[in-house]
């Protein structure tokens, strides 16, 4: 997949991609030198950035398991990125092989690799689309095959909305998804913040400014406001290590150093 001769035609090899940088932080191999260059610069400024990515992935795991325990068997992961180890379908189908998962991303390498690893899995698929293309996502052939709009669903928007600027009206985007979700559905959400360690976060925002995914950090009040249509599951909006940790590895001595808030909301 990293051979330029085998890449989808719309891949930009000159500009770093957030999805491919995230793959680099997680130890994946589906990234290019331009992504690794940005990733190494990020490590210089935030030496624990790989731990941040792993912690965010652990948060995703706990959210998926929580939803499964509440009877959810269909998942829509938007901005899923490159599905490195520990992705939604692996977590869900390990617990219940009947679980159905639809991934969505606008990054062509992420989508191409997803199609490769999901080949033969009749209960998981991927759609290449932008977050804002709600009708295209929910009206896709893949969604028609995998998702039942009459049943509760878990929508994952993990480490996604800090790439949505205020000018794109992020609250309205989330509200549009809320309107399409059946009662009892969940929204898993995490977001970068600059509240506690602004020097770390601002350095990342500055680095990503010239990538294909400029970032916007928000504080806890702003993130909570984005989730206003949902009833938040305890403990609400907290630093991701504090969201229902299951093991000592999930806990951080200083959770604020995760630079991320996480939450799970339910449509009631």
Written account of the structure:
Strands 1, 2, 3, 4, 5, 6, 7 and 8 form an eight-stranded mixed sheet that branches. This protein is an alpha/beta fold. It is globular, with a radius of gyration of 17 Å. The model has no long low-confidence stretch (mean pLDDT 93). α1 packs across α2, α2 runs antiparallel to α9 and α3 packs parallel to α4. α4 links the parallel β1 and β2. It has ten helices and eight strands. It starts with 17 loop residues before the first helix and ends with a strand.
What is the SS-derived class? alpha/beta
* Averaged pLDDT: 93
Estimate the strand proportion.
5-15%
How many H/I helices? 10
Distance between the termini: 42 Å
- Global morphology: globular
How would a textbook summarize the main sheet? 8 strands, mixed
Computed CA radius of gyration, to the nearest angstrom:
17 Å
Topology diagram in text:
Elements: H1 18-25, H2 33-45, H3 49-69, E1 74-78, H4 88-95, E2 100-105, H5 108-118, E3 124-128, H6 134-138, H7 141-146, E4 154-158, H8 170-180, E5 186-192, H9 198-208, H10 220-226, E6 231-232, E7 238-239, E8 260-266
Parallel strand pairs: 1-2, 1-4, 2-3, 4-5
Antiparallel strand pairs: 5-8, 6-8, 7-8
Helix pairs in contact: 1-2, 2-9, 3-4
């Amino acid at each position: 997949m990293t051979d330029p001769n085998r890449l989808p035609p719309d891949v930009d090899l000159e500009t770093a991609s957030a999805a491919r940088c995230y793959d680099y932080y997680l130890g994946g191999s589906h990234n290019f030198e331009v992504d690794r260059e940005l990733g190494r610069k990020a490590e210089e400024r935030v030496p624990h950035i790989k731990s941040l990515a792993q912690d965010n992935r652990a948060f995703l795991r706990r959210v998926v398991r929580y939803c499964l325990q509440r009877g959810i068997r269909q998942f829509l992961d938007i901005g899923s990125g490159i599905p490195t180890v520990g992705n939604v379908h692996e977590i869900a189908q390990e617990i219940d092989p009947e679980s159905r998962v639809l991934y969505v991303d606008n990054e062509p390498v992420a989508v191409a690799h997803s199609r490769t690893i999901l080949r033969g899995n009749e209960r998981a698929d991927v759609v290449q689309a932008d977050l804002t293309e709600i009708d295209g996502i929910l009206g896709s052939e893949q969604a028609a095959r995998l998702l039942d709009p009459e049943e509760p669903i878990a929508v994952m928007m993990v480490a996604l909305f800090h790439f949505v600027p205020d000018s794109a009206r992020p609250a309205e985007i989330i509200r549009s998804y809320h309107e399409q979700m059946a009662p009892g559905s969940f929204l898993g959400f995490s977001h970068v913040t600059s509240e506690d360690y602004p020097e770390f976060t601002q350095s990342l925002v500055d680095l990503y400014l010239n990538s294909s995914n400029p970032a916007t950090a928000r504080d806890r009040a702003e993130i909570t406001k984005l989730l206003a249509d949902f009833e938040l599951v305890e403990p609400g909006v907290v630093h991701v290590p504090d969201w229902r940790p299951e093991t000592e590895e999930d806990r951080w001595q200083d959770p604020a150093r995760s630079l991320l808030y996480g939450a799970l909301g339910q449509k009631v």
